[in-house]
Structures
1.
Amino acid sequence: MVATLSPLVKNYADNLATLQWSSKARNLVTLVKMNDQAVVQDGMTQHAGELGNAAQIQRQNLDSLRDTLRYKQQEAERYEREALRIGSTLATERERLRKVERDRAALILQRLFRRLRHAKRLATLEKTREQARRALIGNDAELVRLEKQKEEALRKEAETKKRLAAAERQTVDALVKVGVIDSQRGALEERKAPIMAVYAEVRERMHADEICREYADTVKKEADATKGALEKVKKEVDDNAAKLKTMRDTIELVKKPDWPERLKEIELDLPSLRARHSDVKQKRDAAVAERDALRARHAKTFRK
């Protein structure tokens, strides 16, 4: 009878029965052929090592998942704090923007009042200039008329001088006319002086247009500077709003409906992973115990 023994656990009963029957068969030659002890021991050691490595890998995976969960929670808290800080900054910037808008509205009203005042002043100056121009035209006409009278008087004076030798009365009349003309000349000079003063004043007032243009340029430069400052503030507010939107999008990504489910799945998997770790450890301990028992049986069988 030839009996073949197997080191597998499931063949333990068959191996034991084979050995029992072989020991009872007194008339038969019993030849037990055992596997090499070193091969059996190495196989069991390798199996135990694989089970230990599997347990170590599961432990490392569990630690990695725990670290990932802790990191995600820290990131979410940091994003929440950053969002609160950005929200506070955005509120401050919005308040600044409202203040700038109010200042801008006040500046626009002030510019409007200034424009109305200067328009009224320019209208008054234009009216005064038109009146002065008309008066000057009238005075010029009067001056032309007086000049013509003067020329006529001079002509008559010349004629009178030519007729001096003709008649004494004509000479006296001519002298009287000359005196009248001289008196009119003085009155004409007296009337001309205030007219020229008014003309000079009008000439000076004519520079008001240039002054108004310079003032308008100054107001425009101030408005452009204010507009630039307003655009800068708006740009800062837009940048902060974009940054806040990015933070909120990240937070929303973390707060998506599937994210808590994933966290719950991880939390639910933790007990199963622990159970699997315990099962692997128990299997490893059982394998070690079975290995020791198998060694003992093999040693006992070898002694027999």
Note: The mean pLDDT is 68.
2.
Amino acid sequence: MRIAWRYQNQPKFESSPSHAKFGHYFDLTRVMDEQKLSSVPVQTFSVTSEMSKCLECSEERKSAEDNVYRMLISRIKSAIKDGGFTTASEKGLENRTILRLVLHGLGSPLWGEEQHISNEISSALTRFLFQLRATLRSALAVCLVTVPTHLFQDPAFTRRVERLCDTVVKLESFVGSENETNPVYKDYHGLFHIVRLPRLNSLVSHVPDSFDLAFKTEAKENDD
């Protein structure tokens, strides 16, 4: 069968469409190229070394904890200013990018937060989050923070931490829970809870169809 000349260059369509998968898929085994990483400035903040310095200057661990958060927010402000990531900066407008910050395990014992595991509550963590949020409002930057809330004994403190963030999500694993044998979740490994969504420059935040999403992990086959 010959196709008319006017349709020869048109894209071909399958008579039986392939099976479409529902949802989003992410390959957690992928890593960034080393050349791409070496082409951008990367700064790190060692909590253990900074905490030891603060303990040498202060006998009380609570004061050392406050000093670590002060040093961290100072480093973040310097990175924003020196890198030209402030919204008022005119440095390299044609090649401006976004500063990406990652803070892992904030509020854990690594950061000197043993008091949250007990009944005593310190304002150092919430004060730091308030300063961080205010700093990023006038910067071309985004910050991802992980917090081990399962270590906090006071649910009210967890709510305070959530209120100081623009977006809050929580992962719930089915391992060891009653949902592991629930037939409703037999094809999934956990839930992705949307606790809080951003409300920037608007009166209300976006309301999704569901605040509880399911996730499933799959082992990747080795091509070797």
Note: DSSP finds six helices and five strands in the chain.
